[in-house]
Amino acid sequence: MFDPIKLLPKSLRSGDWADIVDTFYKYMSEDFIPNKIDIIKTQHFFDRLTIENCRDIAYEFSWSITEGDGYTGTLGYLKKEVATIVKRIVAKNARPAYLYNYYCVLLIGDVYPLLNRPQGLVPYLLWFTDPDTTHDLLTLDMGGDPIADTPTSEPDPPLWTLDDPNYPTTVGRDDDYVSLDFFDYTGELTRHILLRYRHRFLEDETQFHSIATSRAFFFDTLQIKRPQQTPHFEPIIDIYVPSDQAVHTKTFYSEDKSISSDQKSIAFKTSPSLDTIAHIKFGKGSHSIINLSITDVETELGGSLKDTYTVEEFDIDIQTPEIFYSGIQIDSTIRLFDNISENVEFSEIIIYNNSMEPLLYTTFPTVRFFKKMLSTVYLYIDNP
Amino acid sequence: MDFSFDGIYNSMVSRLKALTNWTLEIIYDSVYARLLETIAWIVDKFVYLAEFYYKESIWGKATQRRSLIEKQWLLAYRAHRKRGASGYVKTSYTILTPDPLTPGEFIDETFTYSGPLTYPHDTVFIPKWSIITDQNKTLSVYTTEDRYYLKNTLIRHTTIDSALAVNLGNGIVGIPSTDHQIPIGSKIEISGTVNYDGEYILHSLTTTNRLAIVATYKLEFFPPISNAAKVQTGDILIPVKEGIPKTFKYIASGDINESLIIYSDSVDNDEIEVFVIDADDNILATVTILYEEDAGREPYLLDDLENYYCVLKTDPDFRYIELIFGDDSYYKKLTAGDNILVKYADTKGSDGDISETAVLTAIPNTLYDASGNEAEMSFTNDVAIDNGSDYESIDSIRHRARYLFGAGYRAGASPDWKVIIESYPKVYKAKTWTEYDLDNLSISPNQNIIYATAVTLDALGLTVQQETDLSLNYLKDKRDLTDVVKWVTLSIAHIKVIITGVVQDYPFPEIEQETTEILLNNYDILKRDFGPEYDVYESNMIDIISGNSKIIHHTVDIYHVEKSTFHNDLDSQVSGRKIIFSKTEEQTSFQDQWVLLVETSVQIWIRIKWDNEYLDPLQIGEYLFDDPNHKITGINGYTIVNGVIIPAENEVSYKLEDIFNDVAPAGHPNAGGTFGVFNPTDGDSNGYELMLMYKTKDGLGRYTNDIRMGYFYNITDIDEEEIYYNFEYEK
Fold first, then answer.
1. Which end of chain A is least crowded, N or C, by CB within 10 Å?
2. CB-based contact (8 Å) between A143 and chain B?
3. Contacts for A106 with CB less than 8 Å, ≥ 6 apart
């Protein structure tokens, strides 16, 4: 250890002069160096990153981090953003970049190209496992306005099906782009993409996402997608209901498990006919007591938002109808919330039959969409 | 500004001098002078520190490896630890025979025993991590894969004849070996050759005195027996690495993100396994090892609470490795009491290379066969165990990390697609293009498509299976969701060349062989690239052939050859088919860029495979000069109907009656019978291939003896059997 006192003449090695030199040296070595010099070296050491370092790194890579209140103002969020900047840049437009985005905002999910089919835009779920060969190429985007409203009319030219006599009996490797997929249809690959995800952790006791986090998610998506592409945001809401009209509780936690919040769900009938699902309504409140007396959401969405949808606006896939509420997949085929001037939040859902009798009610931590998100919802209903 | 001791001192002095109450005496002769020196000294040291840290913070200037390793996450890079030298050891059943020099003694003739002998005992299991040493136990390698020595393995060591390798076509090469006695389907190892050393599965074209293997043909005359090239079966190769296998056991406490540290600065970078075991060391679960730096395999992308994972981190100074287990949020946490077993190896890195062969002959642990009997196995190393490496150097980290980041892993711009496809192990070169490249600027769905084609290392086009593999495992993760790959059949025309010339007084076969080698070296597909810049011109070819000084003068006659093995629409009935390099007024108004059919040059050929032997190609169709309807007519016993050529469209049509009716004409080995299969594969003993030959010209009637490619994705190739010679000696 260096002792600067030894540099002084003997007569100065004690007393006030020595104190001044010693104080100066200690100030430099103990305060100035660690706080002003050491950080030069460690500014990019991941374990020691500060909020300021994170911002600097993002700036150097020309990556825009969307900060805000709550989670998106924390060092933890910024470190996730920074840890994946390079990986997202090298995977821009491609699937991994979307997976990193999910990680940054406490989500987990996947991304799919959307096919234009008569009932609307349908995700091509197998795109990642289907090889691109000339044998099963999809019919492609027919051009036009890439951000046009969801097409609902019959495509032109018409779609072929397996029993169509015009469909060629063989498809050579160099033939044009005509194919059938596993569901006996062809669809035109569009420039629309679906971001389907689950909320993995709570942001706080009341919500999965704050609007700031939802906003950050949206702008991160814009940073990695192609400009021609239209992203659709689709959270999966898992609803588990027992058949005995009991309330089912599922607990969600924050990432560090310090905070928890419950989703509570109830089915109103012991053996409802699934064919009678007719209306789905979203609300932004939560009934404090969950029982069979509930007839409506606790708080309506309000504003200009449409909150009740008919079954025709969903693609309902009932996997095993003979089992009570087992594996029902209700996927909206239109954009539910597309008023791009108003943020959206919902925390409860009630499902009615044709007679507007409730079939199912669930309340959960608030799900939010930043106002510019074109959003849909995927409901998965199953036994606990 | 000078931040040396003197600079700092002088700077302070000059500032004090400016103050009226600081006289020179005070500054230079008082205690203040010593005080100023001390302060200057301290500041000087801190300036040095600041400059050092500043330098260490910059990727391009850092002098300490640790500085880069702490920052490598920024470039998604992972510096490697030591890597053990690698290679193979050979093992075989130990064959003991009487020693003729010492009656009553036995000698070990392993690895040279001519056989054939069938291994008579039960299968022996040689597990991964088995140690093999030299006799003094000073060298140590370990196996990196499980291997089985199977019951009934044929043991045979024999030689390769002193003769030429034979090109059997379709990527099959014949290796002469009289009475080799090795059955088809056997795994063999060839050694001592220039071009064919390696392991092969014996192909069905194997005959009594010839081994047939799948390989790229290269001209080679095997040396006389005294320097014999060899072939063997029955010795199996086991991959090994230098190092000493070790284990580490740990009992979990059940904490979130529980970690264990192995203090060793020599843990091999690549050979490490982690298991959950029971009290008897039985494996209950395999723990998947992840690295935060590996894009796409980060632990935070996991959502799996069923299986075990751990993150492996290496100390920036390489003093230890740390394994960090789960948290029950992203992946499964260890449960208190879980027994963890880590298998790894300590290596010497670059100091562990074993250059000496035939030294790794001892196995310290006893091997057993499936019946529990002690197995008599011998080991040796024919090759050096080499290429061990130390911790990655600072220069390597500095350059590789930047390079990989700069190159990217994304199929974005056109070069990215080519680079990614060419990273596929089977691909030699690739070409990609879009509608834009085809000057097709109209709005169409095809604009989402990336067209791709590639030449494999075997000089073939990609198989559908390879295309699928490329699409799923190389491109999906790297491309935009709304891009679509369309694989296009390799647009290849072979070159047929007839060389007519006068030669010096050397044997014709010798001159022909040398000339063939020259042509293959210049026009083989692996030597060429895609597109018109690789057009084949008569003048160039004449010049290249002149490289053989034994040819006094010569001419060449060059044809395009489209083979059914590459273009399977060239079957017995062809209707309105365009030649593949076709470029007409429809594509461009520039006449000098047109590629038009010379109708009088059209020929149709057949190549018959019968009883697993290919016969010489036979012309079966030709242009009928005296017919105003531009007919193609059958010759050499074959009948062609509806033979039509439409020059303006570059189209040909014809029906090969005999083949269509599947009745072989006179002259065919199966006259009156069937033709066998179209485009026979290795497993088909009888069949036929077809070839369409022709010449082309431009819109002004030029270049009729050249091969010009219409598009940048066209490519040419030459095969030995398409080179013909008409030599005569100088009179």
1. N
2. yes
3. A71, A199, A200, A201, A202, A203, A208, A209, A213, A255
E-assigned strands of B333-461? 339-346, 377-380, 427-433, 449-456
Q: At what angle do helices B31-56 and B5-17 cross, to 10 degrees?
A: 130
pLDDT tens per residue across span B175-192: 999 999 999 989 999 988
* Joined tokens for residue A234: 């689709």
Note the pLDDT of residue A328.
67
pLDDT tens for residues B38-74? 888 888 988 888 889 888 888 888 999 999 999 888 8
The reported pLDDT for the residue numbered B109 is 63
Render the burial of B442-452: b for 16+ CB within 10 Å, e for the rest: eeebbebbbbb
Packing angle of the helix pair B538-545, B508-523 (nearest 10 deg): 130
What is the full DSSP assignment across B261-322?
A: EE--S-EEEEEEEEEEE-TT--EEEEEEEE-TTSTT--GGG--BSSS-EEEEEE-TTSS-EE
- B412 to A93: CB separation less than 8 angstroms, yes or no: yes
Q: Which residue of B has its CA nearest to A11?
A: B31
SS3 B601: strand
pLDDT for the residue numbered A170:
40
Which of the 8 DSSP states describes residue B694?
E
The answer to whether the Cβ–Cβ distance between A92 and B38 falls below 8 Å is: no
Mean pLDDT for B650-672 is 94
CB atoms within 10 A of CB B554: 19
Q: Which two tokens stand for residue B241?
A: 């690495």
Per-residue model confidence (pLDDT) at position A14: 81
Closest among A118, A114, A203, A191 to A158, alpha carbons compared:
A118
Joined together, the tokens standing for residue B29 give 């002769």
Shortest CA distance from B302: residue in chain A: A108
Measured between CA atoms, the residue of chain A closest to residue B64 is A41
* B contacts of A2 (beta carbons < 8 Å): 45
| Cα(A335)–Cα(A342) distance, integer angstroms | 14
Spatial separation of the C-alpha atoms in residues A327 and A334, rounded to whole Å? 21
Closest residue by Cα to residue B153 from B177, B120, B185, B182: B120
The distance of B576 to chain A (nearest Cα, Å) reads 16
Cα B61 to chain centroid distance, Å, stands at: 36
- Spatial distance between the Cα atoms of B289 and B296, rounded to a whole number of angstroms: 13
Q: How close is the nearest chain A Cα to the Cα of B93, in Å?
A: 45
Inter-residue contact A284 to A346 (CB < 8 Å):
yes
Asked if residues A363 and A348 have their Cβ atoms less than 8 Å apart, the reply is yes
* DSSP category for residue A36: I
Joined together, the tokens standing for residue B576 give 């309105």
* Overall average pLDDT of the A225-248 stretch: 88
C-beta neighbour count of B410 within 10 angstroms:
21
Name B720's Cβ contacts closer than 8 Å, sequence gap at least 6.
B167, B217, B516, B520
Q: Enumerate residues 6+ apart whose C-beta is below 8 A from B458.
A: B171, B214, B216, B426
Per DSSP, the three-state class of B59 is: coil
Structure tokens that stand for B193 in this block:
């050759």
Closest CA to A120 of A151, A74, A166: A151
For chain A, the first-to-last Cα distance in angstroms comes to 66
Chain centroid to CA A301: how far? 21
Residue A283: the pLDDT is: 95
